[in-house]
Each structure stands twice: as C-alpha cells, then as structure tokens.
Amino acid sequence: MSVQNFAFTASISAGAPFRSASRPRLGPWPPSSEVPRYAAPAFLLHISPPRVQNDPVSAPEENPLPRQLPLPRVILVDTSIFDQQAYNFASAALTQLTSIAMSKQLTLLLPDPIEREVIRHIKERSHAALKALEDARRKAPFVSKWKSWPAERITDETKREIEAIAEAEWREFLKNFTVQRLGYTGVDMAQVMDWYDQQQPPFGEGGKRKEFPDAFALAAAIHYAVSNSTQVAAVSLDQDHQKTCARHSELLYFRDLPALIEAFIAEDVQIASIKQALQAAPDPLVQQIQEDFPELAFYPEEDPNGDVDDVTVKSVKITRTTVIELVGHETTIAFEARVRFSAHVSYDDAATAVIDSSENVYLPLRRKAGNVTETAAISGTAALQFDDAWRAIVAISSLRFDDQDITVTKEPEGYDDDDEPPDPPEQPQP
Predict the structure, then answer these.
(1) What would the mean pLDDT of 134-145 be, rounded to a whole number?
(2) Number of structural domains, the chain?
(3) Which of 105, 170, 191, 384 is buried most, with the most CB atoms less than 10 Å from its CB?
(4) Any idea what the CATH number is for the domain that residue 96 is in?
C-alpha cells in the first residue's frame, strides 16, 4: 500500500495523544513620566505562567515573568514532552519552539538516554498506529471498501516505512537547534548512586527506584552546565525532574513547552518595556553618569603626565542600552553614551623645551594651559531598580564605566602665563 494513504488513515485511528548580595542605593529617583505598558501578544494570556524558579510549591505570581532573565540559551527537553506532543513536530507548541530556537540560537542538550528513548517511543507509536489500523479492519471489515483505505495489508516493510518517516521528521526538528549530544563521560556516578541510595529525585519509591536513564540524563546536563558555566532550562512533565531542578541551581525547571515558550516571549516583552521606559525617561541614568563621570581619571593626549582639572559635564546622550540581566525588579543594563564636557588642561609645552642630551636636560620653559570642551564616547553597566509597573527608574544600585581613563584630545590655546615665550638661549657654535 502507499505510505501517503496510510499516513492519513493512521492519524485518525491511532487515538488521542498521551497526556501524561544587595547593593546600596545611590539615591531614589521620582518617576519623571509614565510609559504605557508594553502590550503582550494576545495568546500569552491563555498560557499558564511558569512557577517561580526552583520553587516546586509556590503559586504562580501575577507577573508571569521568571525571576531571572535573560533565560538560559541551553535547553533540555525530556521525552515526556515529546510524548505529550505525540511526536507531531508540526504542532503549535513545537513549531513555536523551533521559531524561538532559530531566533535566539538555542542549544538543545540531547543526553544519550533521552535520544534512545525518543527513537524507541517513535517506533512503539508507529507500531501502535499500525496495530490500530489492523484492529479497525478486523472489527469493521466494511471499512476496507472505503476508497481511501490502504489497499494492502500491513507488512514489515510498511512498518519500516512509517518508522523512517517519523525518524526523518525527528532529524528535521533537530536541525533548528545547535544540538549538543551528551554521553556518559563526565557523569558523576557516585552522585547518581547517592541519589539512588537516598531515594532522591529522580529516584523514588516503587517503580521510581529504576529511574537510572533519567538520572544519567540529568547528571549529564548538570555536568554540561558546570563545565560551560551556564544554566540549563529543563522542560519535563515529570514531577521528579522538578524536584531535581529545585536541588540543583544549574537547572531551571519548566513544567511544559507552553511555560517555556511564554517565558521566552515574556523576556522579549519585558526587555522591550524596559527599553521603552529608558527611552522615555532616561533622566536618572543621565544624572548618575553626570555625577560619576568627573570622578574618572583624565589625562592630556599630548602629555599623559599633564593635568586635567575642573571637569564639568555639559550634556549626556545615551546612544545604546542592552538588558543583560533581570532579577526581580532590578535590571542590569549595558549602556553606551556620548558625554560632552569641559575641563582645564595644562601640560609642559615640548616646543619650548631646552634640551641638552649631554647633561640629560629636558626643561620646558612654558606650560600649555586653558579650558577645552570635547565629547567622549563611553560605555559601562548600571543596575537599575524599576517601579512595580516597570514604567520608571526608582533607584540606581550601581554604575560602572568600562574604561576608567579618559583621554583629552583637545589642546588648550594659551599658556599658564600671559607673556610671550622667551627666546631660547643661544646654542654654542661648534
């Protein structure tokens, strides 16, 4: 029979999918203007929010945003999730996940136990669908008269064709990620056996005492996270996975794909909201830069040993902001800015120096001196605290510039005295 005809029929007969250190504030800031709340996508309201990070018992908060952003760019998807989606890689959830994976360049961890289990479940589901088809033929022989019913009986070749189709879709799905396959090298066997002996998750009582595949998969993911100094977003319907994640900070638990997808969407929405607030009301950040900028080290380009005093900031223009961390209502941003400032600059004028190499004498007779105005390009990071509505900055916990030294390129036009420079002494005739 044709594979195309069977694929349509099996989708009907196979049945429903399986469901299985605080920092001191530098000062409060009154909100200078209100920014409308960033509108979340409509379907976001219909997806259950993720629970608080590593907290298996707390109720969902009104704000569905996880406590820490940006989210990990490394994910671990348990077999239970693929079972829940019935290995339909065209489902809404898996399609949205692949879209996010491509836009955010996600890495998918694929421990050997999970990959083996996925392939085994694909084969089992393929065989179950074929059996359902045969059962339908036996229970209602008249269905074979339907023009779309497969003309041939199911053979081993049919089984191989269906398995090949499902496995090909699995391979196509993986192409949307940077796949990191994890073997057993680096798995802490002593740790796994401690989990087993103490009946710690993913082990438990009864049938859960045999959860070695899950234990190996989670141990491999923890080893990867530690080795790569990262965190892994772990998605599983298994409550013991949730308990394991609660005990290991390397793993951030999500109870299903919608929870993970919502968190990624909320991340984009929240970051856009933060940037909108900064654009509409940047005064607190601008003022903090104005206060801290004069405390940097300044030196004249013409003479690094010269002096730069009385630095006064005239204006600050924020040219770029990037959210690099979000914890609670405090966000850390990286910023770039252009600072226009004036300063008094003075340094020895090399053009007036008396030089006697035989005596190692270098004696500038005058010093260039005067006020200059110029613009410096700067960058740095700032920890900002927002109000509950994420509309205004209420405090700045810290601000740090990337470069602590500022070069003054402008030259003063005068000298530190009003007299013309004296004639240089006559040099002895050879």
Answers:
(1) 80
(2) 2
(3) 384
(4) 3.40.50.1010
